[in-house]
Amino acid sequence: MRRVTVLVVLLALALAGCSAGQGEKDDAVVAVYPEDVAEQPAEAEAPEGPDAEELLTQLDLVTDFRDEFDHGPKDAEHQRYIVLHDTEGEGSPESVVSWWSSSGNLVAAHFVVGRDGHIVRCVPLDRIAHHAGYGDTGHNEAFGITEDGRDDMAGATPIGPSFADYGMNAWSVGIELVHVGGSGDYPPEQLEALDGLIAYIDAYYGFESEITDHKAWRSGNSDTSPEFAGYLANYQDHRTHD
Ligand SMILES: [Zn+2]
């Protein structure tokens, strides 16, 4: 509390100096301020939520970052959505990542969650992955994505022949669930892993990103599958599958 009081007094002094036009007094205030802050003991602030690195260690997760999947920076200011997908294949997360790499399309999500709860991450959270792209007409406005790309994306790794990045990619984290639509329910191990992964992402950013799925953004896509609809509603309501 003392620091706040000192800052208020200093601000008052600074304002008084400005209004009086006394340049010498302003200099004196500036000289005092950093010394005073440096003398303050470090205040122990209570953590506001779970520690991201601790949550990360609780996941069955391996890291396999691939440079070709990295389409440029995405800081917390540009993080708004977690977009869920189905792979529409049954292979392991490792095989999904290998397939993306061999395709040469530069397509990937940040995470792939296997049916047994095993997770591979192949793009860092603070980098853009190409997993969602353009949405339906009008969805930029509906989702609050007001331009096709981001103004600060010039010079980022191109996707295809002309785009630095575009649509949802520049504003989201992508998670692929190994699942084939119509094949039945998602295993509890996979859903529990997704619960933990979302908790980690929330803790990493310090806020709750909006959870959606690929077909909500682009209706031509089938993922996530109809079997996921109830789980998606639960995630959107309280961030766990059940
Ligand atoms: Zn998808």
Automatic annotation (TrEMBL):
This is N-acetylmuramoyl-L-alanine amidase. Coiled coil: none annotated. Its EC number is 3.5.1.28. It comes from Candidatus Olsenella stercoravium. It is an enzyme of class 3 (hydrolase). CDD domains: PGRP. InterPro entries: Amidase/PGRP_sf, Amidase_domain, NAMLAA_amidase_2. The lineage of its organism: Bacteria, Bacillati, Actinomycetota, Coriobacteriia, Coriobacteriales. GO terms for molecular function: N-acetylmuramoyl-L-alanine amidase activity. Keywords: Cell wall biogenesis/degradation, Hydrolase, Signal. Residues 67-225 form the N-acetylmuramoyl-L-alanine amidase domain. It catalyses: Hydrolyzes the link between N-acetylmuramoyl residues and L-amino acid residues in certain cell-wall glycopeptides. One of its GO terms (biological process) is cell wall organization. Residues 1-20 form the signal peptide. It comes from the Bacteria.
